[in-house]
Amino acid sequence: MHLAFVMKTRTEKGAFMPTLIHGGDWAGFAAEYGRLPLDFSANISPLGLPEGVRDAIASAAAQQDRYPDPLCRSLCAAIAESRGLPENWVLCGNGAANLIWRLAIAEKPRHALLVAPTFAEYASALQSIGCEVQEYVLDARDDFAIGRDFLDLITPETDIVLLCEPNNPTGRTTDRTLLQDVLESCRKNNTLLVVDECFNEFLDDPSAHTLESCLSQNPQLLILKAFTKWYAMAGVRLGYLLGSSPDRLERLRRAGQPWAVSGLAQAAGIAALKEKEYSRALHALIAAQRPLMAAGLTSLGCRVVPGEANYLLFYHPARDLVGALRRKGVLIRDCSNYTGLEQGWYRCAVRSPAENQTFLRVMQEVL
Question: How far apart are CA 226 and CA 200, in angstroms?
Fold first, then answer.
């Protein structure tokens, strides 16, 4: 079972600290070294918080003496308009992880099908309610691509299938035809399909891969989205689910606290949806920098998985690569605690040109 805190480790100063499953622990680094790191362990937009979002949060601060709208009416309306969907097909939450846990509580599935490696919160949430999790282990020899034999595992006993598109940490997407076949198999078997598209916007052609157009004909389909990565709003905590079954979304809403999304987060989300120029600039930046990062890592002797998002999974046999980089002020994600990955697998974000050059230079120094 995955736990948020899996063990305790001793820092260089001698204090015992809990080891986190996820990346992005800048606070732990700051507590140990007294400064902020160059953080490549979290896959956040390198452009930072959009100015319009920052202004919206500041403007909304004066109204925080009252409870936030528990139904997120204005935010849901703005999301629905941006996606071209009905308002009652949108459910907002305190980040994508909050909605994953709500989903487990509301649906109470007995049997789930996941790929491995993938985002740890799926298994954590499902196992917390006693769900049996079956894992389809992806093969590194195939660059962690899902094969058609995945369809054989979807049966009438499968209550829920969760797919991350593109997958985290591999950065790979499932072939579109196969993805459609998975959706059809779930429909035939009355299985809930949850597709996590939190990194979909980082793809070269996001509209070609999303399953949003399939929602109207598939009430057993849910699509998970987040503002976290694209708009650099990790600290704000804002995600949402899309689904054509308002009754199911209502069950999920009731499975969490009534004020799950703060007033500040709601204002930030509405403002973020207006950041068109920011989105164009970010898309161009990632598209240009991702292949340069992959080439740089390859030149250093790393095996790089052909990722399609704003991060890259790579392998290098060097011992204590994470520790060596950390001592130089750089964080990467050690992926050896993912099911299906061994020691030597790492994930790094794709950031700004200057940051990426610094990262590759430091990598060269430690290798």
Answer: 10
Residue 259 half-sphere exposure toward CB, CA atoms < 13 A: 8
Residue with structure tokens 């949003």?
212
| CB of 230 closer than 8 Å to CB of 273 | no
pLDDT at 194: 98
Q: Hey, which residues does 312 pair with through a beta bridge?
A: 348
Query: Measured between alpha carbons, how far is residue 107 from residues 160, 175, 261, 298 in Å?
Result: 9, 28, 21, 43
Q: What mean pLDDT value characterizes the chain?
A: 94
From residue 357, give the alpha-carbon distance in Å to each of 35, 184, 224, 295, 351: 21, 44, 33, 12, 10
Decide: 221 and 68 in contact? Cβ < 8 Å: no
Span 8-43, pLDDT tens digits: 444 444 555 566 777 778 899 999 999 999 999 999
Q: Are 64 and 263 in contact (CB under 8 A)?
A: yes
The DSSP symbol for 28 reads: H
> Would the pLDDT of 299 be above 90?
yes
- Please say whether the beta carbons of 215 and 245 come within 8 A: no
Contact 247, 218 (CB under 8 A): no
Interatomic CA distance for residues 302 and 23, integer angstroms: 20
Q: Residue 304 forms beta bridges with which residues?
A: 314
Note whether 221 and 189 are within 8 A (CB).
no
Contact by Cβ (8 Å): 274, 227: no
**Residue 161's pLDDT band (cuts 50, 70, 90):** very high
* Residue 319 banded pLDDT, cuts 50, 70, 90: confident
- CA 49 to CA 365: how far, in whole Å? 31
Element housing 176 (H / E): helix 176-188
Residue among 160, 184, 164 nearest 173 (CA): 164
Instruction: For tokens 């004909």, name the residue.
Output: 217
The pTM of this model reads: 0.93
